[in-house]
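Hello,

Following up on my earlier ticket. Below are the two sequence lines again, exactly as submitted.
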Amino acid sequence: MNWTEWISIDRLINGVQSAIVLLVGIPLLILVSRWIGSVVEKNYTPQSAMLVRKGIFYFGLVLLVIVELQHLGFKITALLGAAGVAGVAIGFASQTSLSNLISGIFLIFEKPFEVGDVIGVGDTTGTVLSIDLLSVKLRQFDNKFVRIPNESVIKGQVTNVTRFPIRRYDITLGVAFKEDIKRVIGILKDVASNNIYCLDEPEPIILFTGFGDSALTILFAVWFQKADFLALRNSLLPELKERFDREGIEIPFPHRTLYTGTVTTPLPIRMVQDSSDNVATPN
Amino acid sequence: MLTEKDSKKIPEPADNPWRTITVDTSACRRYQIGPLKMWIEGAGREWMVAYSHCPEERFTLEIGIDEAKPEDLQWTQIITGAPSATLRFVPIMPDRPVVVRLRNPTRIEKDGNCVLFAFIPVWVQLNIGETTEGLLEMPTVKLSNTWFGDTTMAGEMCYSLKIPCELTLVTDVLGPYRVICPVRIHNTSDADLALERVCIHVEHLSIYRGRQGNWANEVAAEYRKEEQKCEIRYGSCAPEYDGIGDLLSEARDPVSRNLLLRTIGSLKTMSF
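Thanks for your patience. The regenerated structure is below:
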């Protein structure tokens, strides 16, 4: 094809017109999608708003490009045919992306979490920033940005920490064998009752779980409003320690007893005074 | 219920904490309403406010001047639009519903009715000068949180009141920082109604001054078991028990129509 023959005044005018339409149309599309997104956000979730925003923008963009290509004289049917052939080749080459894309669609419809939820995927925990077609973006608590491919989210176990308005905080406690369990349970109930972040209902769970190696073990589980997690941890644990100290309840550390075969006879140790360096040596 | 026409002017008690105070110096002043202690320092347009709760209750507004400003408290700075030398404390209801237990589990026979009296500790709204919207709100009593709902997945966050509600009016728990909230329950179902605790949506209640204490408008609840619903009516003025005094504060979220709320019969609880 001779390009100098192909480029005519009409085509140049058409090209300029298309460029102007695109230059005006794309910002207009952004504005319209943002406006509709903000309207949706007022009535629905931020995630729905984001989906609507992106859906309107990409759909509008494709429509705009097709219209402009037609305006420039391209045959769309031929282009679509070529795109179909290219699609097969691209599909083979981009299996991972397609898998992520399909996983993304499942995630959007299944809604295991929404933008703003705190989720755990594998070892990563963070706040959901966006749920896109290819990946989920998280902000970790130390302000790191994490991108997790949708395929990994669908395949793995996801924990939504903030799905429900209240949560339970479990503390496993150990007290010395000599302690009176009933008294300890009474003290735990009192500590929970006096902490404003512990919910009165559902009631705290206090369960004597058994005889450990060095301590009697107790499960102390209190319910709290999800937003109070840090405040509860920072208040309840010091209050427990303070109260146990005040009441003389011993929190034992692991003990190890050495004996030489007879339980009642202690390991014989004799102190010997050495005149040269004052070192005691066992017998 | 009395109407505004029948109302009698109740004289303002001398120890009434809900009044305007003129501040003539910028020294750090201490006020106490019930267990709530407040420190307010400033003059003109710039004010500093801090508060804490103490175990000793005061039933009147205690005023003192502290030589040294307590530094271990969290201070809030307030800058007003216009210079002022007056402070006003206004009682308002807590910002969330309050769950109150009955002293003993109670059964109300079919077609029976009763009145429960709950004693809700108010929040203090601080106004400086002509401000009426409240620059700072402080609870007189730190109430613990509780969950009110069928399951741990659906329900609402409420405050929990340690003092149980009574079937007769008792005055030994009264103080200027507590509001008596009468709840009239009528069981129109064909079965007995077992009740252990009630959830009162205090955000719909106003506060009035009475002779014996401060009062909230009466809540009337009609229980219908077949629908598992309760029709709630909020009185539009002070209840008839103690005459009518001045309106001390409007409800945070006034409702003029009757509400139809679902009750949680299985848990022996009712929500108003």
